[in-house]
Each structure stands twice: as C-alpha cells, then as structure tokens.
Amino acid sequence: MENKIKIAFGTGNPHKVQEVNEISDGSNIEFILPSKEFNPIENGTTFLENSLIKAKETARISGQISLADDSGLCVEALGGEPGLYSARYESTPQKRINKLLNNLSHIDNRRAKFVCAMTLVDGKGNVLTQKIGECHGKIAYSQSGKNGFGYDPIFIPDGYEVTLADLDEDLKNKISHRANALHQIIEFVENNL
Ligand code: IMP
Fold first, then answer.
1. Is the shortest distance between the CB of 31 and ligand 1 below 6 Å?
2. What residue owns the CA closest to ligand 1's atom 14?
3. What predicted TM-score, i.e. pTM, was given to this entire model?
4. Minimal CA–CA distance to 121: which of 191, 39, 52?
C-alpha cells in the first residue's frame, strides 16, 4: 500500500475519484484529489483538449503527476449532442435527463455512446500520454435505477437490458468508458513510470 504511485486526479466530482480508485484497485496507483481548489476553464473544443486543460491545471496547483478526464454522452440522432456540453445541457441532473428524453421522444434511433478522454501529465504539466475510452449503447425510453450519476439512469449499455444505474457499480466499472480509458493509462504508468 505505502509504495503506491500517487497521482492527483483533477476533478470537482468526488464520485469520479471513488470510481477511478475502484477501477484501479489491484494496481500500483492511488488517485488523490488535488489539495487546493480546482477551478479550470474548460474551453477546449474536444474531450481531449478539455482533459489536457484540466490535467495541466491539476499539475499547476499540486506539482504532482496528474491525471484528468473529460467525458460526456454523445447521442447519434442528435448529431453527437449533448457531447462536450453534457454537464451543462441543463441546470440539474434530473433536468438534463428530462431534456434528453424529450428531445428523443419521437426518434427511434436511440444509439448513443459515452466517451471519456484522459490526459496524464508530469508535475510540470508536460504531457505523458492521452487515451480515449468509449462505452456504446442506447438511450432508454424512461429512466430507471439509482446507482451511478449523471445520465446513467437512461443509458442501456450494449449486451444488457437495463440501465447503467440499474447495474452494480462493480459491473459499471468493468464496462464503462472511464474504465476503458483508465486501463490504458494504468498500462502506460506500469510500463513507463
Ligand atoms: P465532466 O467530464 O466532468 O466534464 O462531465 C461530463 C458530464 O457527462 C457529467 O457531468 C455527466 O453529466 C456526463 N457523464 C460523464 N460520465 C458519465 C457516467 O459515467 N455516467 C453518467 N453520466 C456521465
């Protein structure tokens, strides 16, 4: 335990830190919240750019090797929306779900994917690696489930009949976009740091 590599994880969402530590359980890495307030300006035009902005800001305030992600839900029939604006689509998680279901109410094509971009930088903010993970599925016709966060109650991953919010968090952490991106980062860290 005491020899684990500590990596600052740049987020204002404590649920994400819990998720990445659960996903990386068994590896030689422990993710910690940056010690100072984290307030980056997410003005990138892609998930990768935003994850880079957040990772550099995390390294600036912590001086540590830092990882940050940027993620979102892309709905095929809506031209990839809410995409980069997933967190800002409406003012609360419930309103965001309602808006999405409403926008798809007369649409049969429910295909969607969660995307997660991750950037790992050194303590000075130099890029070490960038990875992208995806989780494909469809948007349900109504919401269900209490686990997870965000759009989980309306996302049915491929191979399942229920939403991510109906699945155990352990199972979500095996199939999620964040798990997919993080496993690539862990492999990089274990081979290169
Ligand atoms: P960010 O990556 O923190 O900028 O926010 C992305 C937004 O996408 C979140 O606020 C959620 O609304 C949504 N999102 C990202 N990952 C997930 C997930 O695993 N489940 C549900 N919603 C997610």
1. no
2. 72
3. 0.95
4. 52
